[in-house]
Amino acid sequence: MEKDLFEFMFSTGCRIGEIVSLERNCINWSNRSAIVRGKGDKEREVYFNIRAEIWLKRYINERKDADPAIFVTELLPQR
């Protein structure tokens, strides 16, 4: 997970606070962009490179949960 997180941060210039609130439905794969919520609760569009896209897709495809958050630190068993 660290590689995709760092690639996304490096590519977009997002703050960690913007990344932790990022959800799957905020990603636009066709133009490699994402809507993030930043300081002052303002939304902005950021763009990521192909390298970040590859790592991000790989990470999302390996996950077995339905959590809408992109980056999760601990997956709890579903009930």
What is the number of helical segments per DSSP (H or I, 4+ residues)? 3
For the largest beta-sheet, the strand count, sense and barrel status come to: 3 strands, antiparallel
Count of discrete domains: 1
**What's the end-to-end separation, in Å?**
24 Å
Task: Give the strand content.
Answer: 15-25%
Mean pLDDT equals 87
- Spatial sequence of strands, sheet with the most strands: 1-2-3
Share of residues in helices: 25-40%
- Calculate Rg over CA atoms: 12 Å
Order of helices and strands: HHEEEH
The total count of strands amounts to 3
Structural class: alpha+beta
User: How would you sum up the global shape?
Assistant: globular
Stretches where pLDDT is under 50 for at least 5 consecutive residues are none
Would you kindly provide a brief summary of this structure?
Helices cover 37% and strands 15% of the residues. The chain is of the alpha+beta class and 79 residues long.
List keywords for this structure.
alpha+beta; 3 helices; 3 strands
List the helices and strands and how they pair.
Layout lengths: L1 H11 L3 H5 L6 E2 L4 E5 L5 E5 L2 H13 L17
Antiparallel strand pairs: 1-2, 2-3
